[in-house]
Amino acid sequence: MAVAIRLKRTGTKKRASYRIVVTDSKNPRDGRFIEEIGAYHPRNNPPSVTVKKERAKYWMGVGAQPSPTVKSLFKKHGLE
């Protein structure tokens, strides 16, 4: 099972917000997930990101691969 850290879209049409989740890479974008480790709200000014840093470090330590978008969000918040 390849584990990925990626965004799960929530919110309504044209008012997107995202949750940062750990999931099997074969699951659909908004499908089942293992654990929710944060949130990203791009519509706020400035955009806000909350991350459970300990859990993110744990999952990356056991081999979970962040998506390119999540990787850039982590880099902005000092997780890489």
Q: Main β-sheet: number of strands, strand sense, barrel status?
A: 5 strands, mixed
The structural class is alpha+beta
**What does the average pLDDT come to?**
91
Percent of residues in helices: 10-25%
**What distance lies between the first and last C-alpha atoms, to the nearest angstrom?**
23 Å
CATH topology: S16 Ribosomal Protein, Chain: A
Query: Roughly how many Å is the radius of gyration?
Result: 12 Å
Give the spatial strand order of the biggest sheet.
Answer: 4-3-2-1-5
User: CATH top level?
Assistant: Alpha Beta
Order of helices and strands: EEEEHEH
Fraction of residues in β-strands = 35-45%
State the CATH superfamily name.
Ribosomal protein S16
- Number of DSSP strand runs: 5
Write the CATH architecture name: 2-Layer Sandwich
* Poorly predicted sequence stretches spanning 5 or more consecutive residues: none
Count of the separate structural domains:
1
The geometry reads as globular
- How many helices? The count is 2
